[in-house]
């Protein structure tokens, strides 16, 4: 495949749903009692869902498809000639320019919107120079630091599904769409936040490696709508055939990963908990700010031997070190230019002139950091720092790994340990307090509580908001007291 063809394939979500999977989805919908009068496939590709729907839903009066690729329309026309099904109406058009509301509002009866939208984010699409996306806007209304650091990035399919949800409000209709598992939760969250109608929701995991040669958690998102129901939960099935499921839904205004498990430990939940988990240092320039020590020599990420004072150098543990329990020693170090966010950095020139010279010599890397958080801040600024950064004892966990492994960490070579920004940590002034809290966090009750809130398929499943929601005082009271020998 040529580079241009691959770009086009990714840009248009051109990873066609196999006919086998399309037929399995349609058969699942039949077992769910779905019998639509009209089926819409808004991005029908080569028409496998169209073909599967035609075979499966014999009583459906109309099957409508839209496709932007004229070559695929020719393939669908060939299928129509074979199927000889006059219910099928496929036309050329762009999802983002088509007047869907007019189409849907003029349809009578029960509607099923079926298919598979592109699995690509707007930022990747933009980086490729792609144009198959909606007009740029911060459609989820993130503001401030969230928007600056990427939370305004979104999956194209998320935007498209939100449009579909609005088409189907206040009528007897269903949505059955293949999408990332994370996107399906975002749709549930959108419905809940906007208080839109939802009669039922379920997801069914699919084998993405088998059907799409992709390593991503995804499945069938099924939503049933009616005139008034607002049932904001989702039954989660491990595949299209199983009858066993767990239920996710809202408790205390948050989306819970396992309602049954959470309700057993709900007394431990406290949105106003005094616990404050912090994230590690953010500098966005590891080649300059991080070093590897070889003997008495420090080498930066550019391969340069560096001669600087140690006053601003601290031992560094990365998320992988925390996850793999490499916490007793390290040969990695990080340059920490501030003690708190916004602190002027000119004092480095007096206290550590070699360090200041090093920073100035590498300013061409630091001054062009793209994130807006560095704009209008002291030169060579970093983020994720405060008095907590320099505490002698810490409990840490990596947010990227799919396991609740907490680590109790003290100083290394009599210097407080610094973490990268994939790590969350609590800080302590003494070992006793740190050890007592560590025992609480590693208890079965704490692990079960956190597990009920975490969605393990996410890129960063462990979040500070989840960690902070555990009331450690309530947990301590709830745990059985250790027995005392006479």
Strand content: 15-25%
Extended strand count: 20
Classify the oligomer: single chain
Which range best describes the helical content: under 10%, 10-25%, 25-40%, 40-55%, 55-70% or over 70%?
Answer: 25-40%
The largest β sheet comes out as: 10 strands, mixed
Structural summary, described in words:
The chain is built from 20 helices and 20 strands. The longest helix is centred in the first third of the chain and has 14 residues, at 70-83. Helix content is 33%, strand content 20%.
List keywords for this structure.
20 helices, 486 residues, 6-stranded mixed beta sheet, 10-stranded mixed beta sheet
Short description:
The chain has helices at residues 3-11, 19-31, 48-56, 70-83, 100-105, 122-127, 144-148, 156-167, 181-194, 208-212, 259-264, 286-289, 319-323, 348-351, 353-361, 363-366, 431-441, 444-453, 464-468, 472-478; strands at residues 38-41, 62-67, 88-92, 111-116, 173-180, 200-205, 218-225, 233-237, 245-251, 254-256, 278-279, 290-294, 297-300, 305-306, 313-317, 332-335, 393-398, 407-409, 418-419, 423-428. It is of the alpha/beta class and 486 residues long.
